[in-house]
Amino acid sequence: MFAIHWSRCTQPRARGCWSSPKASIPWHFPGVNEVVNVSISQEPLRSEITGKTRVLGILAHPTEHVKAPPGINRIARERGKDAVMVPLNVAPDDLSAVVNALRSVRNFDGSIITVPHKQAILSLCDEVSAQARAVSAANVIRRESDGRLVAAQLDGIGFVAGLRGQAILVSGRSVHLTGAGGAASAIAFALGEEKIATLTLNNRSQEKARALRDQLIEAYPTLDVRLGNRDPSGHDIVINGTTLGMKPGDALPVDVTTLRPGMVVAEVIMEPEITPLLAAAEAAGCRTHLGHHMLDHQLQLMADFIGL
Fold first, then answer.
1. Which are the contacts of 307, defined by CB distance < 8 A and separation ≥ 6?
2. What residues does the Shikimate dehydrogenase substrate binding N-terminal domain cover (predicted)?
3. Does residue 118 have an active-site annotation?
4. Residue 286: phi, psi to the nearest 5?
5. Which residue out of 52, 67, 118, 195 is catalytically annotated?
6. Among residues 63, 128, 161, 180, which is most buried (max CB within 10 A)?
C-alpha cells in the first residue's frame, strides 16, 4: 500500500509525476492555489483473503489475551500459504456445538485450543495423541479432509524449548510447579523427559495434584515427584502453570516472600507480560522467564501439525 504525507511548498504550479516508490514530489490539484509535496512510501502489501483462503482458529474464552494469530499468520506468509488464523470466542457451554459445526467447514484446517477448553476438547475429537491423552488435555486440533478431528498437546514441549532457548537448563535441577490442569500437566510430563532432580507439585486441589503425581511416577518411575505447597523455598526453578495472574486481583500462585536471588521464576501467562508473580520475582532478584517464550517455540510445531 502507499502511505501519503502532505506538506506545503512555494514552487510554481506544476503537474505531478510519479518517480520512485518513495519520494517527495510536487503535485498540483485543480482549484488549489498552492503546490503540495506528496511524500509517497511503498509498504509491503498485506495478504488478501480470497475464496481459496484456508481458515484456522484459536478457540478461547475470552479471546482478548490470545497472542497466537499474528505469529501463525506470519508463518503462513513465510511459507507462502493462503491461510489466516482468527480468534473464536466460544463459551464452554457452546464448545461442543461449535466444534461439531467446524467438522463441516471444508476450508477449515484446524485450531489452537486454549483456556478454558484444553481438557474438554478431548472428548470432541476422533483421535488423540499419546501425550495429550496422558495429560488429559490438548492445545491444537487438525481437521482431516473427511471431517475427522485429531488432537495433540504441544504446551510442555514448547515450554521446555522456550527455557532452552533462553539458556535455562532444567536437567539436574529442582523444579516447583504450580498447577495440575492442562498446561501444567503438559509441562510436568515434558520435564519428566529432561531428567530433572525433583519436581514438586503445588495445586489448590490436592486430589488433582496426587493424580498428576501418580501419572508421572507411572510414566517416569525414577522421577522424584513430591506434593508441596505455595512455598517454593529450596527450588532452582519456579513455574506458574495456572491462569493466576491473568486477571487483576488474582491470588499469587506462590508465597513470593520465599523467593530468593538465583531462582528462575517462569510464567505461562502471556497477557499481562509482567504478571504480579514476575514483578515480585524481579524485586527479589530472581531471573524471570516470560510466558511468550512457550508460545514462540511451539508456533512452528503447531503450524506443522495443522499442515500449514
1. 109, 110, 142
2. 58-141
3. yes
4. -85, 160
5. 118
6. 180
Helix (H, G, I), strand (E, B) or coil at 227: strand
Name the one residue in this structure whose C-alpha cell is 495472574: 245
The answer to whether residue 199 is domain-embedded is yes
CATH for 75: 3.40.50.10860
CA distances from 6 to 19, 45, 111 (A): 16, 22, 44
Find the helix or strand (DSSP H, E) in which 303 lies.
Answer: helix 292-306
Q: How many domains does the chain have?
A: 3
Q: 226, 177, 174, 167: which is closest to 197 by C-alpha?
A: 174
Res. 12 pLDDT band, cuts 50 70 90: very low
- CA gyration radius for the chain? 25
CA 168, chain centre distance (Å): 19
Q: Choose one of 97, 120, 153: the last residue of a domain.
A: 153
Report how far residue 44's alpha carbon sits from residue 46's, in angstroms, rounded to the nearest whole number. 6
DSSP 8-state secondary structure symbol assigned to residue 92:
G
List the grid coordinates of 13: 504550479
CB 26 within 8 A of CB 16: yes
Question: Terminus-to-terminus CA distance in the chain, angstroms?
Answer: 26
Q: Beta strand 237-240 with 174-178: parallel, antiparallel or unpaired? A: parallel
- Count CB-CB contacts under 10 A for residue 24: 13
